[in-house]
Amino acid sequence: MSACVDAAISAFGSLDIVVNNAGVSHRNQPMLDVSEEEFDRVFAVNVKSHLPHGQGRGAAFPGRGGGVILNIGSTAASARPGLAW
To answer: Which of 15, 45, 50, 79 could form a disulfide with 71 if both were Cys (CB 3.0 to 4.6 A apart)?
Structure first.
């Protein structure tokens, strides 16, 4: 478990929910112009990064019967025209 999880458990006694929030994008361009390298970076951060993060934080749940892991992979918090395919 990471130091932040240890600190939360120490301060509050348990961990009930973990929010994995990651999001990057490529520069504003048509989908047909997005390179595979750019797409791989977006996928690695927005999707693949949730697995090791969730596994590490989720290790705090079994001893207490469960918990919630909420995964968010989005850069849509701010309006940026042209980034929606």
So the answer is: 50
Strands (E), the chain: 17-22, 68-73
State the DSSP H helix or E strand holding residue 55, giving kind and residue range, or none if neither.
helix 50-58
Rg of the chain on CA atoms, in Å = 17
Helix (H) or strand (E) holding 7: helix 3-12
pLDDT of residue 33: 92
Structure tokens, 9: 């458990």
HSE value, Cβ hemisphere, 13 Å, CA-based, for 84: 6
Phi, psi (rounded to 5 degrees) for 67? 180, -175
pTM of the full structure: 0.62
- Percent of the chain predicted with pLDDT > 70: 80
